[in-house]
Design brief:
By secondary structure, this protein is of the alpha/beta class. 43% of the residues lie in helices and 22% in strands. Strands 2-1-3-10-4 form a 5-stranded mixed β-sheet, sandwiched between helices.
Length: 259
């Protein structure tokens, strides 16, 4: 009986030690919490994989959504460490609201495309005037910078008021892609990064809007006040290194801002 009790005490001691080690590791390598624009889902997923392969002791958690919605969550106290917006305005608002550390920095430029699963999109913007186009998916310009750039472009071209009644508003750029790919919209204005997705390539075709038709979307990020600023900076620095430029470009981004 004495031997059984003795062995049990040794096992319990070992368990407590392991638990203590796990706790220490968790404290030494806290998870970096990233709030990221919806258009970054695919490219940031790959960048995260490469980052963790190079730094296996790091931890990164990413929440995707429209830039406007995420910025509002941060203003309301959401505990993120890094904000990767699809524009420059939302990070600046957070900086003015004393929610950030330092200034925002550019990390990429995105492009808008016209995508459809059935229509011939080579006509470009003129396709929108065709009576057979009844629903057009666009991300909410109040929340999604890609949607704002597209609405500004349509207004500038003189087309917006002619097709405004056809627009189906999406919460973010990914939802606009879902509307178009599911058939809930005949065409959709989405990010080139969305269009580069394997499933989107197979199920439809896209027309890349020129810089004259729609301005590239300048995307910036900013560090947030929190417990893990140092770890967040490491990840932000990594995704802007020249060594990962090929990843950004494969998803349709311009990367002249990378270090």
């Amino acid at each position: 009986m004495f031997l059984v009790v003795f062995c049990a005490l040794i096992l319990l001691s070992g368990c407590k030690k392991n638990d203590s080690n796990l706790s220490d590791n968790s404290q030494q390598n806290p998870s970096t919490s990233v709030a990221a624009a919806a258009n970054l889902r695919d490219v940031l997923g790959e960048l995260k994989t490469v980052y963790l392969k190079e730094y296996p002791n790091k931890r990164v958690e990413i929440t995707f959504g429209s830039s406007g919605s995420l910025a509002q969550q941060i203003m309301n106290g959401a505990p993120f460490d890094l904000f990767l917006s699809a524009d420059t305005n939302f990070p600046e608002k957070l900086r003015k609201g004393s929610k950030t550390v330092g200034n925002s920095e550019m990390y990429a430029y995105g492009k808008v495309v016209l995508w459809s699963s059935k229509q011939d999109v080579t006509e470009g913007l003129n396709l929108l005037l065709n009576p057979k186009i009844r629903k057009i998916a666009i991300a909410n310009p109040q929340l999604a910078p890609y949607g704002k750039n597209m609405v500004d472009a349509l207004i500038k071209s003189g087309i917006y008021h002619k097709i405004e009644h056809k627009i189906v508003w999406a919460e973010n750029i990914n939802q606009a892609a879902q509307f178009a790919s599911s058939g809930n919209a005949d065409v959709g204005f989405i990010a080139l990064s969305n269009a580069q997705n394997k499933n989107m390539k197979i199920s439809g075709s896209f027309y890349i809007l020129s810089d004259k038709e729609c301005s590239p979307v300048a995307q910036s990020g900013i560090l947030l006040k929190g417990q893990n600023t140092s770890a967040a900076k490491d990840f932000f620095d990594f995704i802007r290194e020249k060594e990962v430029q090929r990843i950004w470009e494969r998803y349709g981004y311009e990367t002249q801002t990378l270090k």
